[in-house]
Amino acid sequence: MDTEERLRRIRRWLWTVVVGLFLSGVTAFPLEIEVRWLLRALDPLADDLPALVGWVERVHIGLVETGDRYPFMLYGTDWLAFAHLVLAVAFWGPLRDPVRNVWVVQLGMIACAGIVPLALICGPIRDIPWFWTLVDLSFAVGAFPPLWFAYRHIRAIEAATAAPAGPPVPAGPAPASAG
What are the boundaries of each domain within the chain? Predict the structure, then answer.
């Protein structure tokens, strides 16, 4: 596979991540409205999925009451949204020059790995139901593979463009100083 094809694939995988981060960011701003819509959409499934509908209803009530009584608390989700948007912007570097900015892809893979202990430790501490912890873990499962595929192509480009190593040049005697 030639370098141009690898670059196309890298960019395709990275755009997947950028779009996901962007959507995660912009949808974190209007949480109360979105959860209300989700609750309405799930209403016909209330008898079939009572735990899910009950959880979404509890989240909606929490968002409404918190927004009414302590609106400053929702500022935290504004920062969460902003962080997702900033991370999406960070991937412009690898989109432009993947080899030079491979560290951003590595950081993204590390962040995906970090989702796992965060969800598994903090979820139970915060009384998050197991099925919702799986939703949180899906972000790692969804973002890691495109990052990994992009990373493999970046490393292949690096290997293909690396200067071939020749035999070592022996060090000669030190030049005499003029004196």
Answer: 3-158
Phi and psi (nearest 5°) for 161? -100, 0
Q: What is the pLDDT of residues 104-117, one digit of tens each?
A: 999 999 999 999 99
> Which tokens sit at 84?
């997702």
Asked whether 94 and 17 are in contact (CB, 8 A), the reply is no
Q: From CA 25, how far away is CA 87, in angstroms rounded? A: 9
Tens digits of residue pLDDT in 133-173? 999 999 999 999 999 999 999 999 999 988 666 666 666 67
What is the C-alpha separation between 53 and 42, in angstroms, rounded?
6
Helix (H/G/I), strand (E/B), else coil: 127 = coil
Distance CA 84, CA 80 (A): 6
pTM comes to: 0.82
